[in-house]
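@here heads up, posting the sequence + SMILES for the NAP run so it's all in one place. Ping me if the SMILES looks off, I pulled it from an old spreadsheet.
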Amino acid sequence: MTMKYIEHGAGGDADCMTLAEGPTPQAGPGQILIEVVCAGINRPDVLQRSGRYPPPPDASPVLGLEVAGRVAAVGAGVTEWTVGTGVTALTPGGGYAEYCVAAASHALPIPVGMDFATAAALPETWFTVWANLVDLGRLKRGERLLVHGGSSGIGLVAIQLAKHLGVECIVTVGNEEKAAFCRQAGAAHAINYRTADFADEVKTLTGGTGVDVILDMVGAPYLQRNLASLRRDGRLVYVAFLEGSKGEADLMPIMLKRLTVTGSTMRPRTPAEKTAIRDALAASIWPALARGELLPHLFARFPLAQVAEAHRLMESSRHIGKIVLEVGK
Ligand SMILES: NC(=O)c1ccc[n+]([C@@H]2O[C@H](COP(=O)([O-])OP(=O)(O)OC[C@H]3O[C@@H](n4cnc5c(N)ncnc54)[C@H](OP(=O)(O)O)[C@@H]3O)[C@@H](O)[C@H]2O)c1
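bot reply: prediction finished. Complex structure tokens:
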């Protein structure tokens, strides 16, 4: 059996991606085969496509870290899903395709009343934000959070998680439209980093005390100001280094304020770690999604064949929230 998928060859700019035909993958033990209806696009896909983020050796070389669709087959030992069930899943790769394999224990049901496109936009950001803010960042009710890149797919989920946990959230964004959107999504304050210094603003907004946790995707240029913006016992959590990982900083605040500097990437985590995150999301977040209390923001949808346009939109950073590919019906 063959399927259509997006091939990106040796990598390059968005035009290196073409619609190709190849063998349909098969569900191995513990896996499910998903007939993909929609696939979410994430910034790591852009990095992988351009050759800067090679997939792990055992992962599909095809782009795509999250899908929503129907279970088409179950592998040996899988009891929790049956053929035909609607699921959304974190994948090790391979999402930009008509069929995609995922671990059965990395899939979640489509929240009641949610369409496939919206569901496809959930896994990568929710798995990542939960693992980094709740597990590593130890974020808890009553604390204050600063999120850089507030209007990104990751950032908007961080705002929602903060709202859900009872955490006050401050974000940084690159323009006023993004600032307004983040405030409406639940951020207490949105700082336009192009017109204000975020560290000065955080100091003013918190009465000089600072925030408990920072989620950063910018990197080295923000390190010193991030350390200054944390209160005692604060946690700085990295999910990316969009502006670079190398630089210089005075590390003294780490010792004086007992700060924790940490971070992680989702893809190389062990299957068991991803299952534990899936289970935590199923218990804490999926019921709230089903109740309509948390809602991902879909900025744009593109047919699979227009994947280059979708990537160009993401690279422009004009978007707010998620971009999704329509793969099947
Ligand atoms: N650690 C992990 O496991 C993990 C998993 C998924 C994603 N990520 C990372 O998390 C980040 C957000 O992912 P996403 O899919 O949510 O991305 P996204 O929606 O494309 O958002 C990225 C946003 O970051 C802001 N930004 C700040 N500095 C930037 C720069 N130098 N270049 C480009 N954008 C910049 C832009 O908004 P402004 O206009 O406000 O600047 C942009 O819209 C990415 O860096 C991604 O690689 C990490």
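MO: The first helix runs from residue 43 to 49.
MO: One more: Residues 126-263 form a domain with the Rossmann fold fold (CATH 3.40.50.720).
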